[in-house]
């Protein structure tokens, strides 16, 4: 809900971050930017990308560069998609409806959060043709999960993303200081007919007992591909393959859950090696430039998902701000591809990078 003068020219993702910092309320800003404990992992997610150097190849015809790829068999215009984040109405009145419209216009995937501040039905109406996945926080009541998954499936969502790294909530000091959790509300675990919102921590406990053997129950109630979000180790990646899931998002929850774990880009290598090409691997956390996208793909990610930068774009100008963020990053990625000699995403490989000794 921000005013922007015509003189403003935001040219990179960190410009949107600076603008959001200036214009959002302190509690909203802290909610978006905050990490767990000392925010070591939140900051390392970004820093780790800068420890990787590029090895460009020249004298290749890059007059045509194609950023398109597929995820779970569906084409996307670039390997840059939208990660699940909650409460978009905190930063823009239309919230997730605006986010969904921007994703549809860009031709990329939007993972809608359990903690969306708009109803799923309204999000689908806003962007009926968009590629949507649904992120699930598993509720202790299996029937509630079943009802929500069936609703998601009937609304045309194409995959179920189960978040694993939140059996308990991380220690987010800013939110505790701001008493934010009391003030946030959730519309989605209620039936669509109920419109009154209820404080979300009362409404949606997250299962603390979820384990690997429970995945077969989810597979029995849905035909949607199941993606596991929050895997950081080869051991868990091997178990994911063993339990026949369709994908992994390498993620540390933006550094908001367990602090002092590996940066996402540093964990990616061992996860990719462990799955041996059997399932698709994606990444979120710390992507801010086109070079970052290229590096993630070079290390084996099928695509990346953006969290905070989408909220910065939304705070700037709603749907149009999100479109700008996606457009800037896609253009940067196109440039990175051309300048490293890659004409298609299939040509991006491990030989393009080396880890710096810095």
UniProtKB/TrEMBL annotation:
Keywords of the record: Flavoprotein, FMN, Oxidoreductase, Peroxisome
Q: Please give the CDD domains that the UniProt record associates with this protein.
A: alpha_hydroxyacid_oxid_FMN
Would you identify the family this protein belongs to, as annotated? Belongs to the FMN-dependent alpha-hydroxy acid dehydrogenase family.
Per its record, how is this protein called by name?
(S)-2-hydroxy-acid oxidase
Indicate which residues the UniProt annotation says bind glyoxylate.
137, 172, 253, 256
One MF term in the entry's GO annotations? (S)-2-hydroxy-acid oxidase activity
Where this protein primarily resides, as one coarse class? other
In this protein, the active site sits at 253
Q: Name one GO biological process term.
A: fatty acid alpha-oxidation
Q: What cofactors are annotated for this protein? A: FMN
Query: Which gene underlies this protein?
Result: HAO2
């Amino acid at each position: 809900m921000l005013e922007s003068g015509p003189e403003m020219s935001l040219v990179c993702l960190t410009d949107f971050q600076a603008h959001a910092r200036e214009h959002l309320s302190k509690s909203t800003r802290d909610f978006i930017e905050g990490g767990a404990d000392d925010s070591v992992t939140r900051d390392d997610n970004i820093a780790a990308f800068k420890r990787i150097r590029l090895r460009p190849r020249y004298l290749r015809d890059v007059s045509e560069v194609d950023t398109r790829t597929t995820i779970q068999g569906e084409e996307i215009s670039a390997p840059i998609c939208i990660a699940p984040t909650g409460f978009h109405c905190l930063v823009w009145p239309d919230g997730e409806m605006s986010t969904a419209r921007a994703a549809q216009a860009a031709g990329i995937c939007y993972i809608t959060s359990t903690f969306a501040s708009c109803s799923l039905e309204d999000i689908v109406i806003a962007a009926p043709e968009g590629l949507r996945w649904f992120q699930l926080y598993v509720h202790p009541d299996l029937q509630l999960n079943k009802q929500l998954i069936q609703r998601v499936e009937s609304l045309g969502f194409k995959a179920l993303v189960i978040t694993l790294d939140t059996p308990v909530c991380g220690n987010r000091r800013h939110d505790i200081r701001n008493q934010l959790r009391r003030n946030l509300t959730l519309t989605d675990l209620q039936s669509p007919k109920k419109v009154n919102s209820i404080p979300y921590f009362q409404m949606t406990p997250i299962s603390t007992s979820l384990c690997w053997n429970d995945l077969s129950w989810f597979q029995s109630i849905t035909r949607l591909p199941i993606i596991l979000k929050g895997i950081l180790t080869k051991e868990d990646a091997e178990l994911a393959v063993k339990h026949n899931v369709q994908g992994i998002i390498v993620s540390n929850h933006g550094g908001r859950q367990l602090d002092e774990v590996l940066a996402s880009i540093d964990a990616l290598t061992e996860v990719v090696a462990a799955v041996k090409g059997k399932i698709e691997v994606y990444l979120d956390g710390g992507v801010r430039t086109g070079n970052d996208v290229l590096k993630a793909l070079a290390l084996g990610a099928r695509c990346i998902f953006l969290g905070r930068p989408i909220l910065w774009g939304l705070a700037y100008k709603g749907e149009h701000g999100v479109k700008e963020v996606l457009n800037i990053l896609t253009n940067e990625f196109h440039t990175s591809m051309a300048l490293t000699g890659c004409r298609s995403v299939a040509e991006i490989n491990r030989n393009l990078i080396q880890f710096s000794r810095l």
